[in-house]
Design brief:
This protein is an alpha+beta fold and 128 residues long. The protein has one domain. It has 5 helices and 4 strands; from the N terminus they run βαβαββααα. It starts with a strand and ends in a 19-residue tail after the last helix.
């Protein structure tokens, strides 16, 4: 199973999930919020309790920060898969930029009071 874990109360994270759903017409991805019981258990299983931003779990392999974003784009429809070219930028630089934005994401993009609710059409792709 290919699971994207995201911060369910973060506006930019929730918008990113909606974007991924739009360009994932083959329904390759499933989603779980970091705040859910399922999400917490999955983070613990992979020893990622300290991660508070996007995690992509593909089978038993996991990707975090900028690596997660790059891996996810590989499976999106359209030209988005070309964003994988960013893997040639050193990981330390990519992750620095990612973590900086993640650190201030609530201040820049805002925060929701509750986790996003999926539409009926996509509800089966969200793991609780």
């Amino acid at each position: 199973m290919n699971i994207i874990m995201f911060d369910g109360v973060c506006n930019v994270c929730s918008s990113a999930v909606e974007f991924i759903i739009r360009y994932d017409t083959n329904a390759y991805f499933y989603f779980a919020s970091l705040q859910s019981d399922f999400g917490k258990a999955l983070l613990k299983k992979h020893k990622l309790e300290d991660v508070d931003s996007i995690v992509f779990i593909q089978g038993e392999t996991f990707f975090t920060y900028s690596d997660a974003v790059i891996e996810i784009t590989k499976y999106l429809d359209g030209r988005w898969k070309y964003l994988t070219i960013f893997k040639y930028i050193p990981k330390t630089i990519r992750d620095f930029i990612y973590k900086y934005i993640a650190k201030y994401r609530y201040r820049i993009f805002g925060r929701r009071d509750v986790c996003m609710m999926p539409s009926e059409k996509n509800k089966s792709r969200f793991l609780e």
